[in-house]
Amino acid sequence: MKRILIILVAVILLIVGGYAVSVVYGPSLPGTGDTAGDAIVEDEAPEAAVYQKIDPEEAKRIMDSGDPYILLDVRTPEEFAEEHIAGATLIPIDEVIERSPLELPDKDALIFVYCRSGNRSFMVVNELAKMGYANVYDLGGIIDWPY
User: Fold this and answer.
1) What is residue 119's three-state secondary structure?
2) Domains of the chain, with CATH numbers?
3) Which of the residue ranges 43-47, 101-105, 132-136 would you say has the lowest mean pLDDT?
4) What is the pLDDT of residues 9-22, one digit of tens each?
5) How far is CA 22 from CA 29, 58, 134, in A?
6) With 90 as the cut, is the pLDDT of residue 87 above it?
7) Contact 112/71 with Cβ under 8 angstroms?
8) Which residue has better confidence, 49 or 93?
9) Does the pLDDT value for residue 29 go beyond 90?
10) Summary mean pLDDT of the chain
């Protein structure tokens, strides 16, 4: 019985191991020299955007480098008035689909999206990717912004 179980597990591992899953990398970030972002999934069109996360340290480094970027706050106007990251543009989450084509016309622009804790920014980054924005990064929540 033990031998059959071992053989069965080995066969399953061989079968599963035979189906490699391609990893989708987003485009490389400006100023990073990172070229690992050039890989794409075989059956996916090269222009397809994917969800991308960035930590505050890396975002701050890029922001300080002088490369152009858009900092998008997707919280409510009240939250924005209370505190926000300097230079941020406010488009509340419930207005993103309607306002993005007008206020974010360059779908190749580097965009960092944040909210309070990271939940809304996650949803918006995914939605913008579906809309064809190619360089959108989830910065997470302002509660994690140490600057």
Assistant:
1) helix
2) 2-144 (3.40.250.10)
3) 43-47
4) 444 433 434 433 33
5) 21, 25, 19
6) yes
7) yes
8) 93
9) no
10) 79
Residue type, 112: F
> In this structure, are residues 121 and 143 in contact, taking their beta carbons and an 8 Å threshold?
no
Q: How far apart are the first and last CA of the chain?
A: 60
**Which runs of consecutive H residues, i.e. helices, occur in 19-138?**
56-65, 77-82, 96-103, 119-130
Q: What is the mean pLDDT of residues 84-93?
A: 97
- Encoding tokens for residue 90? 């406010």
The one catalytic residue in 49, 62, 88, 115 is: 115
Classify the C-alpha dihedral 117-25-46-67 as positive or negative: positive
Active site residue 115: yes
Residues 137 and 52 sit within 8 Å (Cβ to Cβ): yes
Give the amino acid at 84: H
Q: Are strands 135-141 and 89-90 parallel, antiparallel or unpaired?
A: unpaired
